[in-house]
Sequence to fold (333 residues):
Amino acid sequence: MFFVLNKIKYIYLPVCVIFFLLLFPQVNFAKISDKNAVKTFWDEMPIMPGAPKYFIRTEKIEKKTKSLNNHPIQISREILRIMLKQLSYKYERNEPEIPLLSTKELQLLTEYVPKALMNAKPNEDITFVIKGQHSSKRWALKEERLTAGRLFVSNNQLNIILGAVQVSLQPDLAERYQGNVWESTKAVYDIGHRRKEAEYEGLIVVFDKNQKGIYRKSNERKDWFVFTNTAYKQAKEKKMGDKMSKEQYQTLQQQIDSLQKKLNQPQIQQQKNVTPPPPPRQIQRKRDSVISEKKDNPHVVEQRLKTIEDLYKKGILSEEEYKRKRNEILKGI
Fold:
């Protein structure tokens, strides 16, 4: 009897599944597995059954990975934003570049990925499925598109593997006819893998051609990008430059001018006397000699050079400004 029941179960269960799929063909359950998920830092439930689910979370890395990650690790939100913003997308080679990530997507990643990196273990990656408004010549209006992938720091370098790039979420005509006007249930997406290259239309390029330190993992992997220490350093310098322009640069010239006036100002202690003042020409001659002596004083010149050098090292002066100020001081000798 037990054998008969088991046989019936194995026969009728597949039949019931097939019947259910035929009865509800529009239902397409989420494609992303949760079996490796560890901790979710942000998520958004699907709009309807079968629509994509969105999240930023930590996951156990794939089996047989050659090296573990440098997690937990700290990366500032602003530096992460600057680095990710360097990637742009071309859906065809002859079309102009558009940002890979929208403003909303960058905000999500820069807010939650640093937290995830600080909580991740060496055997965990950060995976994400996000969406944002994008526009291009290909579609008339801005529309929401899905991008997914994984982030991790290995060999002290930030890695991003893209599993899906700007996937359309617009329902097709058949879905609209069935009443689905919100979000497609036929979107195909993945979160990227070390051992398998993702297939997507178009290509990813580095937005700033002068930016160094960002490269593809290999010629065969158009979905895997590595940010070296050079890219991190340039992002850090750009962050400091942006901060200076807002908080310090407005008063920088005033500080330098005030410093030069202070260094050039002759500190002459005039003694009170009853003798009549010398003629104006004699006063001017004496003043010129004092100023000339002050300018030629090696201690003063050395102090001025040291001051602008300190400003340059702190990032307050750019290299061009530093060289110009240095030449001005040396010309005055």
